[in-house]
Amino acid sequence: MNLAALSPAASPAAALAAARLQRLPLVTLYLTERCNSRCVTCDYWRYGADDLSLQGLQQLLPELRRLHTEVALFSGGEPLLNPAWEPMAQLLRAAGLRLWLLTSGLSLAKHAARAAALFGSITVSLDGTNRATYQAIRGLDAFENVCAGVRAAAAHGVPVGLRVTLQRANYRELPRFVELAHECNARQISFLAVDVANPHAFARKDPRALHLALQAEDLDPLQQLLQQLEHDHAADFRSGFIAESPQKLRRLHQYFAAVLGRAPYPAVRCNAPEVSAVVDAHGQLHPCFFIAGPTQAAALTSGLDAALNSAPMTALRAQIRAGQRPECATCVCPLWRTPGRPLGLLPGAAGDPHV
Length: 355
What we know:
Layout: H1 12-19, E1 26-32, H2 44-47, H3 54-66, E2 71-76, H4 85-94, E3 98-103, H5 108-118, E4 121-125, H6 131-138, H7 143-155, E5 160-166, H8 174-183, E6 188-193, H9 199-202, H10 219-232, H11 234-239, H12 246-259, H13 272-275, E7 276-279, E8 285-286, H14 304-308, H15 311-321, H16 326-329
Parallel strand pairs: 1-2, 1-7, 2-3, 3-4, 4-5, 5-6
Antiparallel strand pairs: 7-8
């Protein structure tokens, strides 16, 4: 897409042509709304019921080819709960797409061999470094099971990353998360702040979840832990084992200070809606994980290209580019892809696809 042609001086026809997405390097597929975790940060497990069908994915495949899609991220809900996850992965893999799995890890040990044969990368959400913290956040006594799944997948040769959602219940375990990632033979670990302002992203009924964020008395301890991490794990930062740079991790402190009204939110650099899109379990299209798409943008009925380039979706992308969406100001997980740069699979790899 030619962003220069979107200037006010451009003619309406030129602006419309420039706003059309002709490539979609990354597509996120919500294979299901259902989840086998009981997370305090999310309500999909309470209300989710629907699965994306294999037939629905087959409908998308020709358009994914035309849009030169490189990577498909399987997400949800818990994607491994969709009984057709394996034939779906086989279908896309045969079409030349690289596959990335985002999972809670609860059933990863069971599926490790098959998942390793299909996915180029697996990211496991792990929000505790011990049984008690994991259960307090995830709602299940499954810490050892998830760690076993990470080890099993890694043993089959697939790069496994850990994704930690930092929040009040676990931030004091920050250095221990890095140690645990090494112990589980993960390839990488990444951190993001808990989202407290965007109910759409996690199907929450409560519009704000401020109780999950750090409080004023937690800010100084977090700053000390970040400094400790930078000092004690300098080699892990240099090697990329910790996906974020020390500078980027310091944004976590600023984010939680901003939630408390003590700082501005960290500046967000993101072009996710220009290089990626989300197709949910109903076949609806969204510009990113955090912003709901227009109800008219139904990828499985109108077609992916038509939904991507419909007038409502084009207008929504224009709003996002212009900084007119409040969700962007508080985003915890932006994506930036440099045009022409290969799209990486693990967070922090080329393209930094945090989805």
